[in-house]
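User: Run a structure prediction on this.
Assistant: Running it now.
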Amino acid sequence: MRIPILLTTFLLTGCSHMANDNWSGQDKAQHFLASAMLSAAGNEVAQHQGYSQDRSAAIGLMFSVSLGASKEWWDSRPSGSGWSWKDFAWDVAGATTGYAVWQMAQR
């Protein structure tokens, strides 16, 4: 119940301005790779803290996605480059990939 409320609140808040960027580029690769590494690292740290494999995966994935969203929120300030849904999509894709690679490494 909390996630739909947070997601709705997040989607209904206005950003200061939006970025006008492309789907490809060096920064998209950086978003993807950083998110993948953060997701895998979050999974591993959570597992070392004694969480189950499923719980660790959720923690790692949400850790990475929340950092990506925070970065975009920072970019949306008036002096920033603007909120980029494309960057955020690459963040989510990277976090999912990091999750999948970490899961495969556990087997």
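The chain has four helices and no strands.
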